[in-house]
């Protein structure tokens, strides 16, 4: 048998629950597996704010659940790569996955690319996406506080998210094309019986129209009679549209490679094999009658076990062996626990659950902590211990309660940093009372700016800042921004590093985010990772809940929103400094595409 260092047993394309589960099973069985993801590991479930029906986990959110899955797979030895698969060569014993970062050789392939929200094609859908038309209630519901909203769809998502939207909307009108909901009766009943929800059956959204402040009217069509009517909110104001019309399978990569059904879903057989030997499919992209996290993970496990057998057979047939994992983090932990138990003559006890401490916080760090529980404090200690150089956090404050909260929040973090962080406070222009919205990065207060320490000991701004308090879903992105600025930072492959370095003219990225949005952190992290590596890029995040004037200026009704302004030479594509606006979750490669790198 001959070892091939550039060979994998299996390449998993897609880093959602199905792909992560397959990676876990394969790595645990000591097969070399690479999980390939073009955007954010975790898949569509990461935008779900509450998961209560995953067995064994009483209550969590989608991002936490899949983060645990990824950690499990990684601990068993699974490898991960951020790249986009662009083609497949599936003939012969050795298959090749072509990506935008090079070719990958393997015995078997698992397609787990999932599905994305379906666009239904009504007039104005594309034009007003992010400005009244939305696809994520968790991320964008707050933008319609006190307004009416229309929900399009008759399935699980439409029923469940309509109830969620009643937290914000004054009224929710559900448009169902059929004569009833298509989901479980108990789920539909909650929407049907809610006092703030009206359901219109046999009704289809034909189009929307807008005025200066947002959507003002909708054209509805009766699917039985064909009659159209104009709908307007009762108060004569603006409204929002949330589309929950199912998903489109992400199968373009395998179109013409494996068998698909008439709707574009992958046809699989008894053990999830496709029409091509050695190519399997798992998760939402395959033909199945229920698309939930639990069925995706089951798919991943079933396909992984079959791929183990397939890879073993191909290895014996070809005489080639990938360098399979033999000493994973999991095995090291088990060995360490066994040695400790042997030395003490006892069995290892489970680690105690972290307890949340209470009490008041102070900017000096004295007294009890309030912002961070014990688990978070331990994680911060690891990050601070790895930081290569100290940072200064420059606080630009005013006299608002939010400024006091930011000062206490940063003060507690500084106290935990072991000297790696310090602060300076700037209130010099706090009384000016005006923020110029014409600036590409408005000096909205309060904010915290990440600074290095100059040769003269003075803070040197890096172009990375957060306006508001970087808590909630933005806490992790803020901590990683500290790590990336201080160094060594998150690893970058050579191609990505070269693309970042190629940005030779100044560009400002205003990131409008919400602390309740599960898609925003990936975009903030990606943009600020680029800014940490290239001083030509400035990336400042604004909690839109505290700066409504920015939301109004750009008519933002969806997050994350990126306002990109290029300066100087090379800015001609944007009319010399005039901003371009983009919406949606972005990875580092996707942000580089937007920045033209």
Automatic annotation (TrEMBL):
The keyword Transferase does not apply. SUPFAM superfamilies: FAD/NAD(P)-binding domain, Thioredoxin-like. Residues 8-300 form the FAD/NAD(P)-binding domain. Residues 339-364 have a biased composition (Low complexity). Keywords: Flavoprotein, Oxidoreductase. GO terms for molecular function: thioredoxin-disulfide reductase (NADPH) activity. Residues 509-564 form the Thioredoxin-like fold domain. It catalyses: [thioredoxin]-dithiol + NADP(+) = [thioredoxin]-disulfide + NADPH + H(+). Residues 316-364 are annotated as: Disordered. Pfam families: Pyr_redox_2, Thioredoxin_3. This is Thioredoxin reductase. It comes from Bifidobacterium apri.
């Amino acid at each position: 048998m001959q070892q091939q260092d550039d060979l994998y047993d299996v390449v998993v394309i897609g880093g959602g629950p199905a792909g992560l589960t397959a990676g876990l099973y394969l790595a645990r069985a000591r097969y070399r597996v690479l999980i390939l993801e073009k955007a954010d590991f975790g898949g569509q479930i990461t935008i779900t704010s509450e998961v209560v029906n995953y067995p064994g986990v009483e209550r969590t959110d989608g991002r936490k659940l899949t983060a645990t899955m990824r950690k499990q797979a990684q601990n068993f030895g699974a490898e991960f790569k951020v790249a986009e698969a662009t083609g497949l060569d599936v003939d012969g014993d050795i298959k090749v996955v072509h990506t935008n970062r090079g070719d990958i050789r393997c015995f078997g392939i698992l397609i787990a690319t999932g599905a994305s929200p379906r666009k239904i094609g009504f007039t104005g859908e594309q034009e007003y996406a992010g400005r009244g038309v939305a696809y994520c209630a968790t991320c964008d519901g707050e933008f319609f506080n006190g307004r009416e909203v229309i929900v399009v769809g008759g399935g699980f998502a439409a029923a469940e998210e309509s109830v969620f939207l009643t937290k914000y909307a004054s009224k929710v009108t559900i448009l169902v094309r059929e004569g009833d909901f298509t989901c479980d009766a108990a789920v539909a009943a909650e929407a049907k019986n809610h006092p703030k929800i009206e359901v219109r059956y046999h009704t289809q959204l034909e189009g929307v129209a807008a005025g200066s402040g947002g959507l003002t009217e909708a054209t509805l069509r009766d699917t039985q009679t064909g009659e159209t009517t104009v709908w307007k909110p009762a108060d004569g104001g603006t409204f929002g549209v949330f589309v929950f019309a199912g998903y489109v399978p992400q199968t373009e990569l395998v179109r013409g490679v494996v068998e698909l059904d008439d709707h574009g879903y992958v046809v699989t057989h008894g053990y999830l094999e496709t029409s091509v030997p050695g190519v399997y499919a798992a998760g939402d992209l395959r033909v199945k009658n229920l698309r939930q996290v639990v069925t995706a993970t089951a798919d991943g496990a079933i396909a992984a076990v079959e791929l183990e057998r397939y890879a073993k057979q191909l290895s014996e047939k070809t005489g080639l062996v990938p360098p399979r994992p033999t000493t994973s983090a999991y095995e090291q932990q088990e060995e360490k626990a066994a040695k400790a138990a042997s030395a003490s003559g006892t069995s290892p006890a489970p680690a105690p659950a972290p307890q949340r401490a209470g009490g008041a916080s102070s900017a000096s760090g004295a007294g009890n902590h309030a912002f961070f529980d014990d688990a978070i404090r331990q994680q911060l200690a690891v990050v601070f211990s790895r930081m290569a150089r100290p940072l200064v956090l420059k606080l630009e404050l005013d006299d608002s309660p939010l400024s006091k909260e930011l000062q206490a929040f940063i003060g507690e973090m500084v106290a935990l940093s072991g000297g790696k962080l310090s602060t300076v406070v700037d209130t010099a222009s706090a009384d000016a009372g005006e923020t110029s919205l014409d600036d590409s990065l408005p000096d909205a207060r309060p904010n915290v700016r990440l600074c290095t320490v100059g040769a003269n000991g003075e803070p040197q701004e890096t172009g990375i800042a957060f306006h508001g308090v970087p808590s909630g879903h933005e806490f992790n992105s803020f901590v990683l921004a500290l790590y990336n600025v201080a160094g060594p930072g998150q690893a970058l492959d050579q191609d990505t590093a070269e693309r970042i370095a190629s940005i030779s003219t100044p560009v400002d990225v205003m990131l409008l985010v919400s602390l309740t949005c599960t898609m925003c952190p990936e975009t903030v992290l990606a943009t600020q990772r680029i800014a940490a590596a290239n001083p030509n890029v400035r990336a400042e995040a604004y909690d839109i809940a505290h700066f409504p004037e920015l939301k109004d200026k750009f008519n933002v009704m969806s997050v994350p929103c990126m306002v990109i302004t290029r300066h100087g030479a090379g800015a001609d594509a944007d009319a010399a400094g005039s901003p371009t606006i983009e919406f949606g979750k972005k990875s580092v490669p996707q942000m580089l595409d937007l920045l033209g790198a």
